[in-house]
Write a structure and sequence with these properties.
This protein is an alpha/beta fold. The chain is built from 10 helices and 14 strands. The chain has an 8-stranded mixed sheet with strand order 2-1-3-4-5-6-9-10, sandwiched between helices. It has a 4-stranded parallel sheet with strand order 11-12-13-14, sandwiched between helices. It is globular, with a radius of gyration of 25 Å. The protein binds aspartic acid (ASP). The site of aspartic acid has 9 residues, from loops.
Length: 353
């Protein structure tokens, strides 16, 4: 018995000597597996803001957080992605105007065109985050993930939401399943589609919702999980190209209410608007604008549901916005006007994007 046992031991030892180098190589190879390369593009917003103390959850203007500080604050990201950054701006999102949008689009496109790039994350103030998200959804020409992230509480707050949102955004950008889903919005563990999602609450952390449609997926502890993907055209399948542009056509929005008399529609036309998004009737001002060549798109102020096309509306040369809220209809109309002023062709774009 002893001999047999000894023989077994020797055989086992020989086997281990034979396979051990292979094991060692395998382990070294696994350790050297490069992490996905993700670039953080920072623009500012609450996620990069400081309050005077840890209780301050509004009027936080005690300084800005730099991209390097955001990264240093999250050493856990070292295990998720090989992260670099480009600072685009450090402003509140109402200051994200056309030149900054064009700069952001050009930098994100340049990064994603690099073969080594796996994805991009963009920090942004939440007030206009969905506008930038939808803009990028239409002008980024890549299937690689682009994830917009913000925060409802400043960097300095007790129970701040920014770091976990950013951690999840980098995870989502580094996840192969995030490819081909258009620009994503990542806050509060939820992955939402740029086109469909709106900030719905001025103050609560569960603010971004895709009202008619729900989230696409979640960044959960075990994995990033998706349940659906957008079917409207976006990113790699978009026909819009802003790479040679230094500005976009002016488009304004008219918000309707009882007793509205369309005076703003005349003012927009006089200011040089090439398009106006309406949320209701504008009386004679609508016809006056159209006579000046202004393209009219009909959206709605309710923020959910479709504005449908009818033969009567189409015959009046009015484009309908599908379920885009006015501020997103404005983004698409600006891009549409870089290609055509024909209402029928613009309607085609509103039906596809
Ligand atoms: N004022 C901020 C901004 O939109 C609000 C936020 O980031 O949540 O930039």
């Amino acid at each position: 018995m002893n001999d047999i046992a000894n023989d077994m031991k020797i055989r086992l030892a020989v086997l281990l000597i034979l396979i051990a180098p292979g094991l060692a190589v395998g382990t070294a190879a696994a350790a050297a597996e490069p992490l996905p390369q993700v670039r953080l593009f920072t623009t500012g917003g609450t996620i990069q803001s400081r309050g005077a103390d840890r209780q301050t959850l509004m009027e936080y203007n005690a300084g800005k957080v730099t991209p390097q500080e955001l990264i240093d604050d999250l050493p856990e990201l070292k295990g998720v992605a090989d992260l670099s950054y480009t600072e685009i701006a450090n402003v509140g999102s109402p200051s994200m105007k056309t030149p900054l949008l064009l700069k952001l689009a050009s930098e994100v496109n340049a990064w994603l065109a690099r073969p080594e790039a796996a994805g991009a994350v963009v920090t942004h103030g939440t007030a206009t985050l969905e506008e930038t998200a939808y803009f990028l959804n239409l002008v980024v020409h890549s299937d690689k993930p682009v994830v917009m992230v913000g925060a409802m509480r400043p960097f300095t707050a007790v129970s701040r939401d920014g770091p976990f949102n950013l951690y999840n955004a980098v995870r989502v950008a580094a996840t192969p399943a995030s490819k081909g889903k258009g620009v994503l919005i990542m806050l509060n563990d939820e992955i939402n589609a740029a086109r469909d999602t709106t900030k719905s609450n001025t103050y609560r952390v569960e603010t971004f919702v895709a009202r008619d449609l729900g989230p696409m997926g979640f960044a959960d502890s075990d994995r990033v999980v998706y349940y659906r993907k957008p079917l409207y055209r976006h990113t790699a399948r978009s026909e819009f190209d802003v790479s040679a542009l230094s500005d976009l056509p002016r488009v304004d929005i008219s918000y309707t209410y009882q007793d509205a008399d369309g005076v703003e529609v005349d003012a927009f036309t006089a200011a040089g608007a090439k398009g106006i998004v309406l949320t209701g009737g504008a009386g004679d001002a609508l016809k006056r604008a159209q006579d000046q060549g202004v393209v009219i798109v009909m959206s709605d102020r309710k923020g959910a549901g479709r504005v449908m096309t009818s033969a009567r509306v189409a015959a009046r040369g009015i484009v309908t916005a599908d379920n885009l809220p006015p501020h997103k209809a404005r983004i698409l109309l600006r891009l549409a006007l870089t290609r055509t002023t024909d209402p029928a062709e613009i309607q085609r774009m509103f039906n596809e994007y």
